[in-house]
Write a structure and sequence with these properties.
The protein is an alpha/beta fold. It contains 15 helices and 12 strands. The chain has a 7-stranded mixed β-sheet, sandwiched between helices. A 5-stranded mixed β-sheet has the order 8-9-12-11-10. Helix 7 links the parallel strand 4 and strand 5.
């Protein structure tokens, strides 16, 4: 067991693995068995009802998957964790565990597009009252929470405009109203932010992103107190959104370098954000590490660093996006983030592809907004790449 006073980078390498090593191996194996056999009927029964540690069926638990869960819970300082097939499965299963018709949930407008669809399309069908507040308007959120709610759901930094919400303040407001407080911590990662230490009940990650870090495995995870996580696990084991063991192995492997990757991604994001501020074609830059960010002071208080994600809006809207992005040599144009390679894309094809232009405009996402997930490349090469792409786009714009 990794000691509590060990630093996060060391935990990322060692935590959650020792109990699962076999035959002298130094790496957690991929256990692909669906079923687990027992000669002792009483032991089998004790494992089946959770009285004794062990595994009975792959939809429920798996040794490789459990190692991944243990690593995340230790990094987030949680009592327990359970995993899912995707990040959206983690979000939807968690909400479905606790919400029933007649309940009320308070959140904010600037959540990830898939999450927003749950709030605006699916939960209302189940007669669940959804209140979406202006992101960053802490007074409005507090006022709505005070009216009563089952869940207060936050995302900070937000996807894709990296807005910041005061976690400690909102957790206090939520608990005063008797709500379960949930934070999507995907953008920050456990390296930069630990919401449980700020008073939050449950922390969610799309493990597909920074935790895995190599864009080759899907997964999600939620962690928090035993009492709540056990309920979420029970919902997931029955509904079946189970993480695949191979995906769990890839997540474990990826997390061994999480602290190194995130450190470089944060450094690159800050440098790129400052560079983008100098470009005439750029109307605005969104990055919490910039002092111009409206909630920079909050980010500085609750984050160790400001993350590898930023976005910027360009003059000329979609036409400029079409000219600019294809010219980048060191960036994947794809709907993903958190990988070792820099990845770019407009919100209209990435985070909020499910939304209409009107819906995106309503939450302050211009059609010319470009989301950037900074990779681990040398920043001088990335800036030079953006410079040549901007030069091309500027020449095209002048011709037009």
């Amino acid at each position: 067991m990794v000691k509590e006073n060990v630093q996060a980078g060391t935990k990322a390498v060692w935590a959650g693995e020792k109990d699962y090593l076999v035959h002298g191996a130094t790496q957690v194996p991929v256990v692909l068995s669906v079923a687990y056999g027992y000669d002792d009927m009483d032991e089998w029964y004790d494992v089946a009802i959770g009285k004794k540690k062990g595994h009975i069926y792959g939809r429920n638990t798996n040794p490789t998957v459990q190692s991944f869960e243990d690593k995340v819970k230790i990094l987030e300082g949680a009592e327990a964790a359970t995993s899912f097939s995707t990040g959206m499965a983690a979000i939807s299963n968690t909400l479905s565990t606790f919400l029933v018709p007649g309940d009320r949930i308070v959140s904010m407008k600037d959540t990830y597009g898939g999450t927003n669809k749950i709030f605006t399309e699916f939960l209302p069908r189940q007669q669940i009252d959804v209140v979406l507040c202006e992101t960053g308007n802490h007074e409005q959120i507090e006022a709505e929470v005070a009216k009563g709610c089952k869940i207060l759901y936050l995302e900070t930094p937000t996807n894709p405009t990296v807005k910041i919400t005061d976690i400690e303040r909102m957790a206090k407001a939520g608990h005063e109203a008797g709500a379960i407080v949930i934070v999507d911590n995907t953008f920050a990662t456990p390296m930069n932010q630990n919401p449980i230490k700020l008073g939050v009940d449950l922390v969610i990650h799309s493990a597909t992103k920074f935790l895995g870090g190599h864009a080759d495995a899907l997964g999600g995870v939620v962690c928090g107190p035993h009492q709540l996580v056990e309920k979420i696990y029970h919902y997931r084991e029955i509904n079946g959104a189970t993480m695949d063991p191979m995906a769990a192995y890839l997540m474990i492997r990826g997390m061994k370098t999480l602290h190194l990757r995130v450190r470089q991604q944060c450094k690159n994001a800050m440098a790129l954000a400052k560079y983008l501020q100098t470009k005439d074609m750029v109307e605005s830059v969104y990055y919490p590490g910039l002092e111009t960010h409206p909630n920079h002071h909050i980010a500085k208080k609750q984050m160790k660093d400001f993350g590898g994600m930023l976005s910027f809006a360009v003059k000329g809207g979609v036409d400029t996006v079409r000219d600019l992005l294809p010219k980048l040599q060191f960036a994947n144009r794809a709907a993903n983030l958190g990988a070792v390679e820099t990845t770019v894309g407009p919100a209209r094809t990435t985070s909020h592809v499910e939304c209409t232009p009107e819906e995106r405009a309503a939450v302050g996402i211009p059609e010319g907004l470009i989301r950037v997930s900074c990779g681990i490349e040398e920043i001088d090469d990335i800036i030079a790449d953006f410079e040549q792409a901007f030069s091309h786009a500027e020449s095209v714009l002048q011709v037009k």
